[in-house]
Design a protein that fits this description.
mainly alpha, 2 helices
């Protein structure tokens, strides 16, 4: 897992924790939206890394034979 994914996941967790701690509805909603955005970025990057690894495996298999 890359440092960028770790960062995105840490930010999502931070925003979720801040949302839970906030007594203010608007602040809670803002933090929940931010957490969802950070999580979406992490998910997108994870998918891209998985696809890249799969492409590399296929290319290696094709080169072997």
């Amino acid at each position: 897992m890359s440092a960028t994914i770790d960062f995105y996941l840490a930010q999502a967790e931070k925003c979720s924790a801040e949302a839970e701690a906030s007594p203010l509805t608007q602040v809670r909603d803002r933090n929940l939206r931010a957490a969802a955005a950070w999580q979406a970025m992490a998910d997108k990057l994870l998918d891209a890394e998985r696809l890249r690894a799969e492409k590399d495996r296929h290319a290696a298999a094709a080169a072997r034979g």
